User: Fold Peptidase M19 from Streptomyces diastatochromogenes.
Amino acid sequence: MADLQDDTPTTTEVGGDYGLPDDPFPDEPYGPADETLRRAHSLLAGHPVADGYSGLPWALRHLPWYDLELGEMSVDTDVPRLREGHVGALFWSLHLPEGLAGDRAVGATLEQLDLVHSVTDSHPEGLRLVRTAGQIIDARNCGRVAVVLGPAGAPALDDSLGILRVLHALGLRLLTLAGTAWASEAGLTRFGEEVIREMNRLGVLADLSGASEATVSRAAALSKTPVLCTRSAARALRPHPANLPDDLLAELGAAGGLCMVPLTAEQTGPTVRDVADHLDHVRAVAGPECVGLSGTYDSGAAHPRDLADASRYPHLIAELLRRGWSESELSLLTWGNVQRVLRSADFTARAAQHRREPSNARIAELDG
Assistant:
């Protein structure tokens, strides 16, 4: 697959209690005068970051050798920096370069799945592949960073619910609903709605970043579990196409969904203050239960100053503390909201599997 040999862009820098134990990760050194940063470290020790998007699997494909437990400066993410940033869980993207579809998209996604399994198996002291909210807690209790598989792109399904079930059996937890005929600018087709129902039955969460407004609205209303936008900020502050307008943010909040604000200069701005402005706005429009964090490291994106890699989360939390965010709001932002969404998906899937058989619907039958 020649497409899989393309170079990955280099990332640059620009201008409630959920059963967690005491933090097993060491703190970043900080100056005694910086009380706010000390408070940020203390808060993250009890409520670590669940990071909604990492491009690490694709970035690692281009390295001849790496050691994430010792430290790897060729990427933005390794175990020492995850611990320094108090990251307790990380969603590993399986997204593909634009243009891959059909068998090629399926094959490339399976290759990335295989790579993730290999990476986590070879770094057992730092990483643990997980499938459920409970397993995330178990990984944290053992001092490991929990790795959650997804989001993957919808083209990887090749319009097949059977392939969705296979990917889920291999560990997939999130699927991005964009880039297909059944989740287009016009919204979800009948087959697209059946995909959502089958995802609910399996416990695969819907990621709506990059989807059309019609798809976001319909999916949020149809899904029995909360939906996520893993890389979306506030369009009112920055008119990026992946950012959400206020009406959709309000809909997402009303449906119990989660908007995970990306730490990228293009979507949020070049400074920590810009990122905090987006977090403030999403909290105000959708509610504190609707906002999360998405590092988007190792994706080729440029990051704001002082947020160059996964170790820098305490600096963002310190900025939010200075703005008056409460500890309960910050605990939801970093950890609690993601745990809520994953637990909801787990519960809904167990219930649905007693009521609903696996769907054998075909796109030609429903949308033909």
